[in-house]
Amino acid sequence: MGLFCEEPPLESSATHLSGFWKAIWFIVVADVTMSTDNIIAVAAIAQGDFFLLLFGLSLSIPLVVFASGLLAKVMDNYPVIVYAGAALLGRVAGQMIMTDAFTVQTLAPSAAQDYSVEAGGAIGVVIVGVWLKTRRARRHNLSK
Hints:
Order of helices and strands: HHHHHH
Distance between the termini: 35 Å
Number of helices: 6
Strand content: under 5%
Helix content: over 70%
Radius of gyration: 23 Å
Largest sheet: none
């Protein structure tokens, strides 16, 4: 290359600025979504016990904030952790449905129904997750 090589045109600072604010927006939305999900999950598991809610949030929020990189590496190395977490969230969702005041008053579910819905939630979330993952992989392979 000589001294008088043409340099590629520089992107305007406005382009960088809009890209920067777009990235900030995505980060804020992701954080709010994950925080809300975390709070709902901990509140559901605490089942109205204020101490357990505070303990769960005080334990989980620092873990998510400070150990997110480590957690991502562990989940990459051991994908079963992702499936176990998804199953747990599905089970908790089923439990929330079955212990809701409207469900209890309207259906008066038995213990067997409670466990069935919780198991269905756990299994259903994992099945949908696996299905979405394989569908995405197929689409990716077809686009190559």
